[in-house]
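We treat protein structure as text, and this decision shapes the records that our systems exchange. The tokens are whole numbers drawn from a learned vocabulary of local backbone shapes. One such record is reproduced below, unchanged from the form in which we store it:
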Amino acid sequence: MGWFWSLALRINGLAGPVVMLLYPLYASIIAIESPFKEDDQQWLTYWVLYSFITLLELGAGPVFAWIPLWSTIKLATAAWLVLPQFRGATIIYEHYVRPYFYKSAANVVDKKQQLTDSQRKFLSSMSPQARASVADFIDNNGLDAFDKLIAAANAESTKRRAES
């Protein structure tokens, strides 16, 4: 049975860097080059969570050393965060980080000024300069005027597609 644990430790030693660093590095580069923003969210969230776990291990390493199979648990968690079948990083972001962020932001920003998911999606497709212009527009005219502007742009786009 001693050979089994020796083999498991050696596999963890090799699989850990591959699952936690090499594959996410490759997938992050692919996400940067893709035109879609959804994969960017997955990998940015992964790197934030990976950094958090690494910092936690640096601070509490001796405590984690006492947890049986800690390296295996860490590897399984990293695989869940990384693998496209599970998209664990996105799940954690949407269920824990985003609600906490908006809950804390609600104390600073009036709830009427919070953007909807469709508005955020629309803004994420713009350049940083365009986003700054939109922020100025919202500050000057209000969020309702921004909604009307998006609706007019969608109607114009639909009209153009129908004419084509």
Summary: Residues 2-33 form the longest helix (32 residues).
